[in-house]
Amino acid sequence: MDKIGLYLGCLIPTEQYAYELAIREVLPELGLELVDIEEPACCGAPLRHINLSLTMYLSARNMALFEKEGLDILAPCPYCHQALSEVKDVMKKNPALKKKVNSYLKEEGLEYKGTIEHYHLLDLLHDQIGIDKIKKHVKKPLEGLNIAAHYGCHLIRPNDIPRPDDSENPQKLETLLKAIGAESDYYNEKLNCCGAHILLNESESALTKTGQKLEAVQNHGFDGMTTMCPWGQRMFDAKQDSAGQTVGASLSVPVIYYIQLLGLALGKEPEALGLHLNKSPVGKLSSKEEV
Amino acid sequence: MARIGVFICHCGTNIAGVVDVEDVVRYASELDDVIFATDYKYMCSDPGGRVIKDAIKEYDLDKVVVAACSPRMHEPTFQAVITDEGVNPYCLEMANIREHCSWVHKDEKKEATLKAKDLVSMAVAKAGLLEPLESYSKDVVHDALVIGGGIAGIQASLDLAESGCKVYLVEREPSIGGRMAQLDKTYPTLDCSSCILTPKMMDVSRNPNIELYTYSEVVEVEGSVGDYKVKVKRKPTYVDWDKCNGCGECALVCRMKGKIPDEFNEGLGKRSAIYVPFQQAVPLKYTIDPSKCLMLLSGKCGDSPPCKDVCTLDAIDYEQEEEIIELNVGAIIAATGYDLLDANEMYEYGYNHSPDIITNLEFERLICSSGPTGGEIKRLSDDGEVKSVSFILCVGSRDKDLKEYCCRIGCMGALKHAYLLKEHLGDDLEINICYTDIRSFGKGYEEFYRRIRDTGTNFMRGRPSEIRTMKDGKLNFDIFDTATQKLFQVTSDIVVLVPALIPREGSDDIGRMLRISRGADDFFLESHPKLKPVDTSTDGIFIAGCCQGPKDIPDVVAQASGAASRANTILSKDTLESVSTVAVVNEDLCSGCGICAPVCDYGAIEIVEVEGEESKKIAEVDVALCKGCGACASACPSGAMEQKGFKCEQLSAMIRAVSKQVE
Amino acid sequence: MSIVDLTSMAEPEGNQQAKVDEIIKGLREDLSHDCYQCGKCTSGCEAFILTELEPHKVMALSKSGFIDELLNSSEIWTCVTCLKCKERCPQDLAPVDVIFALKNIAVVSGKQIDSGYSNMLQAVLGTGFIQSPKEVVDRENNAVTRDALGLPPMKGPAEIPKLQQVLMKAATETLR
Fold first, then answer.
1. How confident is the model at residue B519, as a pLDDT?
2. Maximum CA pair distance of chain C?
């Protein structure tokens, strides 16, 4: 694989700039060309609360766009990735539905066939690019760091549709962390939710979830936490202070996208990886590691 | 030219109330080759049989058509009737005008009569082409094989031996005893499991009619009911059992002592490379584990192997080789038992995250006075004191993704453990039983449940979503109790998981060799769930115990006695008659393509070379194995394979007869 | 039906479960309602402890036809969609999908929903995305934009009215 279509969804290109910067900085270094396509839109997952049909249409629409270009998809947002996976799976099992979706797509001059694959960074890095290749590119291994892994609920569940890793015992992120020299302990709260989903209408409950998980990570003695999800990152990083206030804890956990950590290990400049945009004390990582 | 008689039964009003029987008689008497036709109120009765017999004599009939109920009901009755008059039993054809006609067309009498005529005309058309068939008989071997030396196999062997049969009992492990030997107490009576089991194991070893092969496996089964040829592999124990007196000095000096996880203790204890599974083992003879013995692995064990040095009887024999024994038996009982589902299948319950999260079988060894802790209940992680124990029921049972069925022993087992725990550790011990439904269905079980409810045990009606191991080693889970509508957080020292039961590892090989079908649950499938619970689809093969499905000890023992008794219905005979409607090959048409052989469920077909003709192959049917199912005949592309009594021309005649009516 | 809830005098509506099924149908081949109320979903519900969402009760109420009280409650809007209930259900059921379906039904029946959700819908209809590129601040409190960071301009649907039209159609005619 030397070329892949980049599908960023909504949250990454409108505010999670660090994620986008790091992806655009790091993946070409590993020999992967990223292609932006014309006219993408929301994956539809956030509208599922209101109307499931909107989710189905929008996911199919985006896949059809990439299919037209003959490109597999990299969807670095687990929420998008899960919507694409689910809609792809449903249309595979239900040809009548596929036909109906296509009758709508036709109005936008599109057709969904189901011929392309989509990846998240987790399986792209672990299975496609591969641990060996990553290891070969590492210039500054992150030795001495013990990083908590946060996968994101939608990245691993539900297991009745294809997900990039095991739903109950995912290990790929830990393997990726080890590949760049870091350690990653198991912790009981590893599979817990960040709360992002109810930030809109139940912000206190949402921030409580965020705070509780961060508190657990801090109490475990981790040096930081890594994510692969813009929603989780937003909660754990940008909202860390308010989450701490909500649960009455003084939190100081560096929270960093894995792709940023990978960039650091490849010897990239922190600024090029958007590290200055992380709100949590990511500087603690470099002072310990001296990257 | 056939001389056919047609006999139409009224079956009271069952048939005659719908079908115009007289009209059918009139119709039948005009069909080709029909010499005589009549009707009678109950053809299956004695006077009904007399009607048939008299007609055979009077009209010199050689083929008989009875239009009545299903042949499953009365074919044997009418076969006996015509045999009495010297007509071959296979010259009978039945037309089912009850189940296939009057019962299903109650409100369409006219059409029902037409259909009865069609059915009779078809039967007559076939009857004209029926051929007399011979039955085959063969001698029965009176010995039996029992596979599996758990309580099921033990009980079945003892029953068969007592009835005078010679029994070969084959057990894979070095000792008989099975799962029951691992249990501490048995519910609801709280008998000590080994106290009631050991005498039975001794009975087996003493019984002159039982030949015991432990550390042995069945590797090949050929033949059919009444005459099975079986190969048994006796694995080398590297100890001469004729010499070994079970003193155990060897195990004490073994260099691997205390280093090998002990299977009998579910890995909670450690054994030596030379071992007996447990002290009451039968036979009490030592075995060397070849995957762990330094001498067998590397040819060297220090300066000299201490087990050999210490054995005054010179029983150690590193050169021992495996031995294949050939047995000849008339019937086989499979009693291969169960395993627990790997608790890691339900990863969220953290089985591999803490040594204090254990299965119910591990708990049996922990609480048993002959277990690795001598019955002292402690945290396995740090030998710490136990103040709280939680039981999680239905781990992988009643689960669509894992095992859909109930394990049938989990609820009662947990109640028993609750009782024993209070007995061992006192009333202050906290016990939580997390259940979905307590199933206490057996005799005395509900009474036992009531007793436990009164002991201060916490019953939580719910199921945790995950179990966490905390920094201090304690176990922690949340459970929503649907009774109190509260979410409780529970902290325990030990969590006992009660996993689903699955067929014992390796039972699929046994099933394949014995041609036993398996149910959707993977367990051996009985012939009929209610009326033939210990028979299988292969004659002469019976099943007993948990290999057929989860069950507890009383049910296992009852089933084992049942299987022994069923096996005796074969073993007690001198000869067996086999079916006559077997497959037959037309050697001129057969090209030896081999399509028929794999479709035969009974292994009755072999593709053989024709003597004298090089490269010409044909199918050959072993009539002793053939059950007359017809699968091969329908698979044969050339029409060379036919089934007697259901030959192509016979069936075509039926179709022609009925299509003529349609025209 | 001859069942009455004596606390509210409500009677079950038989077709309500069908409404839920109708929405889930596109997603699941298996529409069985064989929940045996083991409660594993609620034990592990990430929302329950904070918001009192009880997935097992949602399953029971929707099965027996008492979904009005769910539609009128804010409870169904507190699901964090962690998906653990669906993942771990021993009967392979999906409380989370039922909760989504109930939310969809609430929207169709004109129940008051949080403005956050309607705003998101409006944004997608207007721009194709739930929000437009924001100006963010870095750790030194400097305002930055995509452009300032050297990121390429964000791409989006060219013909918004067309997209809007198809979306409205898909929403009302429903895809399943």
1. 94
2. 68
CB contact under 8 A, A206 and C80: yes
What architecture is the A133-289 domain classified under in CATH?
A: 3-Layer(aba) Sandwich (3.40)
Q: Which residue has the tokens 């999260």?
A: B357
Domain segments of chain A as ranges: 3-119, 133-289
* Pairs of residues, one from chain A and one from chain B, whose beta carbons lie less than 8 Å apart: 8
Q: Which two tokens stand for residue A3?
A: 């070329």
* pLDDT band at A290; cut points 50, 70, 90: very low
ipTM of the complex model = 0.93
What is the per-residue pLDDT across C107-151, written as a single tens digit (0 to 9) for each? Answer: 988 998 889 999 999 999 999 999 999 999 999 999 999 999 999
DSSP B627-657: ----HHHHH-SSS-EEETTS-HHHHHHHHHH
pLDDT at B473: 94
Chain A interface mutation, best of C29, C80, C114, highest count of A Cβ atoms under 10 Å? C80
Specify the pairing of strand B575-578 against strand B458-461: unpaired
B259-270: pLDDT as tens digits:
999 999 999 999
Query: CB burial class (10 A; 0-12, 13-18, 19+) of residue A38?
Result: exposed
Distance CA A235, CA C82 (A): 15
β-pair type (B4-9, B34-40): parallel
Q: Is A21 exposed, middle or buried (0-12, 13-18, 19+ CB in 10 A)?
A: buried
* All domains in chain B, ordered by first residue: 4-133 (3.40.50), 144-235+322-337+504-571 (3.50.50.60), 249-310 (no CATH), 339-502 (3.50.50.60), 579-644 (3.30.70.3270)
State the residue for tokens 């591990």: B362
Q: Mention every residue, 6+ apart, whose C-beta is less than 8 A from residue B458.
A: B430, B431, B432, B433
Taking an 8 Å cut-off on Cβ atoms, the answer to whether A39 and C158 are in contact is yes
Closest residue of C to B400, CA-based? C91
Model confidence band, residue C1 (pLDDT cutoffs 50, 70, 90): low
Q: Which of C39, C45, C84 is nearest residue B463 as measured by Cβ atoms?
A: C39
Contact assignment for C129 to A36 by CB distance below 8 Å: no
Res A289: pLDDT? 53
Q: Which residues contact C90 (CB under 8 A, 6 or more apart)?
A: B394, B398, B399, B400, B401, B402, B463, C38, C40
| CB contact at 8 A, C167 and A54 | yes
Q: What is the C-alpha R_g of chain A? A: 19
pLDDT of residue B663: 56
Q: How far from the centroid of its chain's Cα atoms is residue A262's Cα?
A: 14
Rounded to 5 degrees, φ, ψ at C62 are: -70, -30
Q: Do C78 and A201 touch (CB under 8 A)?
A: yes
Q: Cβ of B482 and C56 within 8 Å? A: yes
Q: Dump pLDDT digits (tens) for C3-56.
A: 888 888 888 877 777 778 887 776 766 677 889 999 999 999 999 988 889 999
Closest partner residue to B468 among A168, A169, A188, by Cβ?
A188
Residue range C47-67, pLDDT digits in tens: 998 888 999 999 999 888 888
Chains near B with 3+ CB pairs less than 8 A apart are A, C
B603-616: average pLDDT: 85
Q: Where are the domains of chain C?
A: 15-108, 115-173
Q: What is the DSSP letter of B101?
A: I
To the nearest whole Å, the CA of C68 is away from the closest chain B CA by: 21
Taking alpha carbons only, the member of B91, B125, B122, B115 closest to residue B15 is B115
Domain A3-119, what architecture?
Up-down Bundle (1.20)
> How far, in Å, CA of A286 to CA of A276, rounded?
12
pLDDT per residue as tens digits for the range A153-194: 999 999 999 999 999 999 999 999 999 999 999 999 999 999
